[in-house]
């Protein structure tokens, strides 16, 4: 199964960045952010979309009682703020850097529309990406509403296996080399970091997986 965040195994940054288009190259620049810097906040004008050159960005919103709700944590090559392309004038979410060296490629909506009009294949990739992203967020909402924490974690690991995993020929294990911390995973499935650690160790004791800071290994089931 293909990753939801890549098309034909091509990094979106390489496909969409206007810096790669000669007529936009001279007037295009990148923006740098430190950890906890906001790229935009709720109610800001939605006049740009953004591509991540390096680093990680958290997408979320604040509920009426002030609690933070994390919708996604995005990494190198991913696109965000895309609802501006569809006509949204104000942001209904925030985007915040969670790395100290996050580099962002901002793209004005007007330039995106120009690129999409000039290249039908480019336009198809953008709309396909938006559709996949909405489906993924809808699936995550269903997990939060209807599944217990352990099930949410297992199904999230299945997603990671699709996006970042590969099969280990020697053992038959599924190896996931992903960019998320335990805190990131906890935010995405609506629980705490200590709970994630407990559940990972529980799954390890059940011989479902093994893990360290760099990778998660889904163990091959014995016959």
UniProtKB/TrEMBL annotation:
One of its GO terms (cellular component) is cytosol. Residues 147-222 form the HTH crp-type domain. Keywords: DNA-binding, Transcription, Transcription regulation. The keyword Nucleotide-binding does not apply. CDD domains: CAP_ED. One of its GO terms (molecular function) is DNA-binding transcription factor activity. Pfam families: cNMP_binding, HTH_Crp_2. Residues 12-91 form the Cyclic nucleotide-binding domain. InterPro entries: cNMP-bd_dom (IPR000595), cNMP-bd_dom_sf (IPR018490), Env_Response_Regulators (IPR050397), HTH_CRP (IPR012318), RmlC-like_jellyroll (IPR014710), WH-like_DNA-bd_sf (IPR036388), WH_DNA-bd_sf (IPR036390). This is CRP-like cAMP-binding protein. It comes from Winogradskyella eximia. The lineage of its organism: Bacteria, Pseudomonadati, Bacteroidota, Flavobacteriia, Flavobacteriales.
């Amino acid at each position: 199964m293909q990753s939801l965040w890549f098309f034909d195994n091509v990094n979106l940054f390489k496909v969409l960045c206007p810096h790669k288009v000669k007529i936009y190259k001279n007037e295009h620049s990148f923006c740098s952010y430190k950890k906890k810097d906001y790229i935009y906040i709720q109610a800001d004008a939605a006049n740009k979309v953004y591509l991540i050159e390096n680093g990680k960005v958290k997408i979320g919103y604040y509920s009426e009682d002030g609690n933070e709700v994390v919708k996604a944590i995005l990494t190198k090559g991913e696109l965000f703020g895309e609802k501006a392309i569809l006509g949204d004038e104000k942001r209904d979410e925030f985007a915040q850097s969670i790395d100290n060296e996050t580099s962002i490629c901002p793209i004005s909506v007007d330039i995106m529309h120009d690129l999409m009009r000039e290249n039908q294949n480019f336009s198809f990739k953008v709309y396909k990406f938006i559709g996949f992203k909405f489906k993924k967020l809808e699936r995550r909402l269903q997990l939060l509403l209807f599944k217990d924490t352990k099930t949410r974690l297992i199904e999230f690991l299945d997603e990671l296996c699709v996006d970042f995993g590969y099969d280990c020929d020697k053992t038959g294990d599924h190896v996931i080399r992903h960019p998320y911390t335990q805190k990131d995973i906890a935010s995405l499935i609506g629980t705490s970091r200590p709970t994630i650690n407990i559940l990972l160790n529980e799954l390890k004791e059940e011989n479902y997986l093994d893990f360290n800071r760099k990778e998660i290994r889904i163990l091959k089931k014995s016959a």
